[in-house]
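Hi R.,

Here are the chain sequences for the assembly we discussed:
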Amino acid sequence: MALRYLPFLRRNLLRNRRRSFLTLFSLAASIFLVVVLEGLLRHLDDMPRADGSEKRLIVRNAQNFKDPIPASFGGKIHQIPGVQGVCALFLYWGIYKDLKPEYFFPKMALDAERLRENYPETRIVDPETGAERPALFDQFVADRRGASAGINLYRKYGWKIGDRIVFRGMGLPDVEVTLRSCYDGPERSSFYFHRAYLEELMGNPGAVTFFNVICENAEDLPSVASSIDALFANSQAPTVTETEKAFQGQWVQMLGNVRFLLRAIGLACGFAMLCVSANTLAMTARERASEIAVMKTLGFTPGKVLTLLLSEVAVLCAIASAIGSGGAVAMFLFPGPWHDMGGGFLLGMRIPPDLAIAALPLGIFVGWASALWPFLRVAHAPIASTIRRTG
Amino acid sequence: MSDALVQIRSLEKTYTRGSGRDAQAVHVLQGLSLQVHKGDFVALMGPSGSGKTTLLNLIAGIDRPTAGELMVDGLDITRLSESELARWRASSVGFIFQLYNLIPVLTAAENVELPLLLTKLGKRERREHVQTALSVVGLADRMGHYPRQLSGGQEQRVAIARAIVTDPLLLLADEPTGDLDKASGEEILELLSRLNREFGKTILMVTHDPHAAERAKRLVRLEKGVLVSDDVKAPASR
Ligand SMILES: Nc1ncnc2c1ncn2[C@@H]1O[C@H](COP(=O)(O)OP(=O)(O)OP(=O)(O)O)[C@@H](O)[C@H]1O
Ligand SMILES: [Mg+2]
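And here is the predicted structure of the full complex:
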C-alpha cells in the first residue's frame, strides 16, 4: 500500500538535489560527531575509575625512582597494621623487536600471585573476544616463564596466547617468556612476567623497583604511608610512599573536564543539527505550500499529506544517520592515525553497536522534531486561501 | 428538481479581513441560490471580485460557506468533516486551475496518477486509467514529460486529464484559459465541450472571456455576490 508512494518520495527528495545533499551531509556530519563523542565518553566510562587505586600506595626509593630497594622490605611492610597485601615490582628495561617507539611498552617483573589482590579492578579476558576468562590467570601463575599482557598490546601486535616473547635486556639479562594471560582494565598496555624468574636470571640480587601496597581502608592510607617511610628512614634505602591516586590525580581531573567538554560539544552539535534541519524544512514547507494545497484539492487528507512529508524526512535522516554512524564505526574499526592519539588510550576503542544503531532513531527523531511544526501547519493550511495566495 | 447535481440555496460567505479591532467583514456571497443539472455546461461570469472563485471553491469543498445550503448529488457537503470532505473530493470533483498547478517534480503520467494513488486500484489498472485520460486530452505521447517540458496549453490538458482520471461527477474550472494564448485556449474549450458532449461530464467554468462563455450551454452572471442573470442557451451549435 505504502509502496505506491515510493516514486513520489524519491522525486521529492531529489527535487532540489543540492539542498538535499547539503542537508544530508550536514546531518551526517553531526551524527558522526555525536556518535564519536558519545563513543569516546563510553570508552572513558569503560575504563572503570580504578576502584582499587584509592586504597593503594606506591613505595619507591627516596633518592631515585630507578634505584632498587631490597625485596626484604616487603615482609616488613606487610606487618604494618592496615596493610592488606604487598606486591613487589621490578621495572625491566628491555627491547622488544627494536628501539622504534611503536615497540615500546612498560615491562614489569612482579609477584604474579599477588596481582589479583592488589589490582581487583583488573579483569582476565580472552584477548580476541574480550570476554572474561579467569582460567588464563592460573596458567600464568603456574608457568614460571609465563607472562600476562594488557589487551591493547595483544591488539596492537597481533599476539596470541601461547606466543613466545623475547626481550633484549638493557644492562639486564635477556628474557624469553610465553604469553599465558591477558588482562583488561583501566590500564591495559603493560607487560607482566614473574619476578622470581628474573631474580633467578640476575643471580638473586633481591632487588625491587617499587612496592605496590593495598590497604584495608582508604582512610588508613596517610598513616600507613608515614609508618612505612618511618620504618625505613634509617635503612640503607630510605623510601618515599605516596598514594597511587596522587599519580593519577591530575589525569582523573583532566578526564572530568574532557568529559564535560565532550558532552557540551555533543549537545551543541545536536542543537546545530536541529536548527539546520528546522530551517531547511520550514523553507521546504513554505515552497511546497501550493503543491500541498493542490494535493489536498485532489483528495489527500491533511493526515496523509503529513505522513508523506514526514516519510520524506525520515528517509533523508535515516540515510544521513547511516552515513554518519557508519563513518564513525568504520573510523575505529580500521587502523588510522587516531589510534595512536591520546597516548594510546584510543587503542582498542570501538563504537558500541547499540550506539551505532541508536543513531538511526536519533537522526529521525531530530528530523521529525524539526519538521513537525512547519509541516503540521502546511498540511492543515486552508486550501482555498493558500492557492489564492500562491497561485 | 431531483436531477439537480448541485443544489445551492441562500448561500453566504463572509470573510474577515484584518484582525482584532480593525477586523472587517467582507460579505462575498450574499444569499446566492443556484441549481446545476447533470450534464450541464455552465459558464460563470462577472466582474473581478464578484465572488466567482469563492463560489467555485465552495462547490468543490475546498472552502466552507458561512451559511446556507449546499448539496452535491444529494449530499450535504457542509456537514462533512475535513477528512470526509477530502475523500468526497477525491471521488466526486475534478478541479482545473487557471495556472494548471501540476506538481513540477512529477511527469505528466505521474501527475495524472496522483489522485488514483488514493484509490484501491492496482498498479496496472492505474496505468491504464492514466493512459486513457491522457489519450482523451491528446497527450498519450507525452507521458514521461515533465511540466517544464510542456507548453502552457499542454500543461492545462494534463491538468484536465488529472481532473477526469477518477471519473468524477463534476468538473470545476477556474478561468482554465485565462493564462493561455488564443489557440491553446481554443483547444482547451473544445476539449471541455467534448467532455461535456461525449462523456456527459457536468462542468462549471469561471471565465472572463465572452467567447469562452459561448461554448457553454448556460451562462450565469454574478455581481457583488448575487446572481444577476441566468441564460439557458439553445443547444450549442457546434
Ligand atoms: N481569504 C480571504 N479573505 C478576505 N477576503 C477575501 C478572501 N478571499 C477572497 N476575498 C475577497 O472576496 C471577494 C471575491 O473574491 P473572488 O476571488 O471570489 O472573486 P472573483 O470573482 O473570482 O474575482 P477574479 O475575477 O478577480 O478572479 C474579493 O473582494 C476578495 O478580495
Ligand atoms: Mg477568481
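The first strand of chain A starts at residue 56 and ends at 61. Residues 101 and 224 of chain A are 38 Å apart (CA to CA).

Let me know if anything looks off.

Best,
T.
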